[in-house]
Automatic annotation (TrEMBL):
Reaction catalysed by this enzyme: carbamoyl phosphate + L-aspartate = N-carbamoyl-L-aspartate + phosphate + H(+)
Lineage of source species: Bacteria, Bacillati, Actinomycetota, Actinomycetes, Candidatus Nanopelagicales
UniProt name for this protein: Aspartate carbamoyltransferase
Keyword Transcription regulation: no
Residues at which L-aspartate binds: K82, R171, R225
UniProtKB keywords: Pyrimidine biosynthesis, Transferase
Biochemical pathway: Pyrimidine metabolism; UMP biosynthesis via de novo pathway; (S)-dihydroorotate from bicarbonate: step 2/3
EC number: 2.1.3.2
């Protein structure tokens, strides 16, 4: 594996390898030695042309825990804000000797363009491209679900997972549907018709417009933020109406299965897609998702840059 651009580039074996490596690294991170020498001397660039908190900091923490040198490169403080092309930026990074570039960009396909090898030779990791994909988020979600719900299984066979909200604009939903079904789970998408993409019937998932009929049947529910910044039309009457039918509130929380968990990729709109009580409940693993994200991203960097080298712990 040279790049991580899309969940579709992974086989089930690849995905399980990442999750199992992350589990090993998570145990190591909980031990006395917080930093591993695995990627010492390697240079990793965080190239973020869109705002990000969790993903950028998570990748930075992951790289540093593997002893890599990290360069943070954001659009607002770089020549990208002055109109510099992705090509010129990539060639600059190549000249700096970047071994890997983690890219978030508002254009779908930006990571694939960078990975073609014409402008730079390092590994490329897609940290979210437009409304296309966000593979590392899907992997950390699968890691979290497996930890809490898989009942000792290596994969997610037998689990039912709901993804609720703005499916239309969500790169997280696209990556999750592919990965979770690859790992054996059944996925149901819950959203109003206006927030479902054209062609969703061809996705390997069920579709429901009735959250109440689904909430009691799932092992995990992944709530999605309404992405106002990507909306160019009127998709909803108002936030209150949306929350009434598709928000996770106290009443819906009480209908969940005994061991079912609540997830959210962040950032959250409290009081819209999820109530404060739900976000902070004992069922919520939202903060844990952030912690798991570091371990999963460590695994991605390790497998891309260290290959089959023995994991030094």
């Amino acid at each position: 594996m040279r790049h991580l651009l899309s969940i579709n580039d992974l086989t089930k074996t690849d995905a399980l390898s990442i999750l199992n490596t992350a589990e090993t690294l998570a145990r190591a991170s909980d031990g006395p030695m917080k930093k591993l020498p695995t990627l010492r001397g390697r240079t990793i660039v965080n190239l973020f042309a869109e705002d990000s908190t969790r993903t950028r900091i998570s990748f930075e923490a992951a790289a540093k825990r593997l002893s890599a040198d990290v360069i943070n490169f954001s659009a607002k403080g770089s020549s990208l804000s002055k109109g510099e092309s992705l090509k010129d930026t990539a060639q600059t990074l190549q000249a700096m000797g970047a071994d890997a570039v983690i890219i978030r960009h508002n254009a779908s396909g930006a990571a694939h363009t960078l990975a073609k090898g014409e402008w730079m030779s390092g590994s490329v990791i897609n940290a979210g491209d437009g409304t296309h994909e966000h593979p590392s988020q899907a992997l950390l979600d699968a890691f979290t679900i497996r930890k809490h719900c898989a009942r000792g299984n290596e994969d997610l066979t037998g689990l039912r997972i709901a993804i609720v909200g703005d499916i239309l604009h969500s790169r997280v939903a696209r990556s999750n549907v592919v990965l979770l079904t690859m790992l054996g789970a059944k996925v149901v998408l819950v959203a109003p018709p206006t927030l479902l993409p054209i062609g969703v019937s061809s996705w390997p998932a069920e579709v429901s417009y009735d959250f109440d009929s689904v909430i009691g049947e799932v092992d995990a529910v992944i709530m999605l933020r309404i992405q106002i910044e990507r909306m160019t039309e009127m998709y909803l009457p108002n936030a209150r109406e949306y929350s009434r039918f598709f928000g996770l509130d106290k009443d819906r929380l009480s209908k969940m299965k005994t061991n079912a968990i609540v997830m959210h990729p962040g950032p959250m709109n409290r009081g819209v897609e999820i109530s404060a009580e739900s976000a902070d409940s004992a069922r919520s693993v939202i903060v844990e998702q952030v912690k798991n994200g570091v371990s999963v991203r460590m695994a991605i960097l390790y497998l891309l840059l260290a290959g089959t080298a023995e994991l030094e712990i």
